[in-house]
Amino acid sequence: xxxxxxxxxxxxxxxxxxxxxxxxDVRPNGDLLVYVENxxxxxxxxxxxxxxxxxxxxVDVKKLxxxxxxxxGHAHDAETL
Length: 81
Fold this sequence. Notes:
Distance between the termini: 37 Å
Shape: globular
Largest sheet: 6 strands, mixed
Strand content: 25-35%
Number of strands: 6
Radius of gyration: 12 Å
Strand order of the largest sheet: 4-3-2-1-6-5
Order of helices and strands: EEEEEEH
Helix content: under 10%
């Protein structure tokens, strides 16, 4: 699936949900380097990707590390100030 992903694609936990970041690099093994808003860069493993379409990458929150889940949970904090 990683071969369908390009730098700049937006990342989501659910299709139709709010994006939390953007792909900065696609690694040869299929992992993604993703910039999570308000938190920085994180690696999302290839096995966390559930779908790719319309320049969107959907990932399975259960397959993300605790630090990534925490970062995603605060991705839009600055928008509420």
